[in-house]
Write a structure and sequence with these properties.
59% of the residues lie in helices and 16% in strands. The termini are far apart. A three-stranded antiparallel sheet has the order 1-3-2.
Length: 86
Amino acid sequence: MILEMKELGAAVEAILFASGEAVPIDRICLALDLDKPSVAEILRGLRDHYAFERRGIRLLRMEDKWQLCSAPEYADMIRKAFEIRK
C-alpha cells in the first residue's frame, strides 16, 4: 500500500488520535511500513501545521514517543466544558 504524503499525515494523525496516549515512533513505522526518518518528517510536519494554523490541538514529542494534546491556550474553556458535563 503506497500512500501519498497527505494521506500518510492523515494516517499518523488517526493513529495518534485513536491511541489517546503517547505512541512510540517505532510503532507508527511498523503500522505504515516506513522508516524512522520518514515518519519523523511526517510528525514534524503535523506538529508545525497545528502550531502555524493555531489549531486547538498540538503534537508533542516526548523522547521517542508522540502524542496529540489540546492547545494550552484553550485550557480554561476545556475545563469549563468538562465541569458543565458533570
